[in-house]
Amino acid sequence: MMFRRVLIAEDHExxxxxxxxxxxxxxxxxxQYTYYCDDxxxxxxxxxxxxxxxxxxxxxxxxxxxxxxxxxxxxxxxLIQAVRxxxxxxxxxxxxxxNKAAIVDALVRESGxxxxxxxxxxxxxxxKAAIEAVSKGKLYLSADLxxxxxxxxxYEFTEFDITIISLLSKGTLQKEIPAYLxxxxxxxxxLSSVEKRLNLMKEELSFSKNEQLVAxxxxxxxx
Length: 223
What we know:
By secondary structure, the protein is an alpha/beta fold. It has ten helices and six strands, in the order βαβαβαβαβαβααααα. Strands 2-1-3-4-5-6 form a six-stranded parallel sheet, with helices on both faces.
């Protein structure tokens, strides 16, 4: 069944208008929009506590610019987490320019979002497809994101990989890792072996720096 009442959380007016137009094309006219995450959370909370019809979908951006109004919820991720705490069954579609697979996957796995559409070419058409898919109980990701997330989740970390990344996350320098491996009888323990594994992981996951690899593994709970 198509959605009856939709909340849009988007701080750019032009994007807000575009989303409303997409909803109208699907004959969804009972919509409300806000430029702030705190206001979005308040609207959802109010709809649950009052006699008014509750929202059954929220479409939110992730990035919100700061202005003269201080916010408790400063971004879409915080908003999603807050909403999930009071309304676990609400359908959530993220509409954002962010395209990092780790962030998308974490939102799906940990926050249970139902769709993620990247702001790009043909994004209005993509958003329409997402709304239709989510209304039928399906998970929707933009095509480029599906491929990226699939590739990143396909890499299988070995115990040796996890040991190296864990040491880096604790502040151990790359050149100091061989000494730890040797002391704990972990083989191979040479610096060249450590460098090869790090380079392989970064190549497979499309990272250029060790810091990116460490952050990715933290996001996915690998370390």
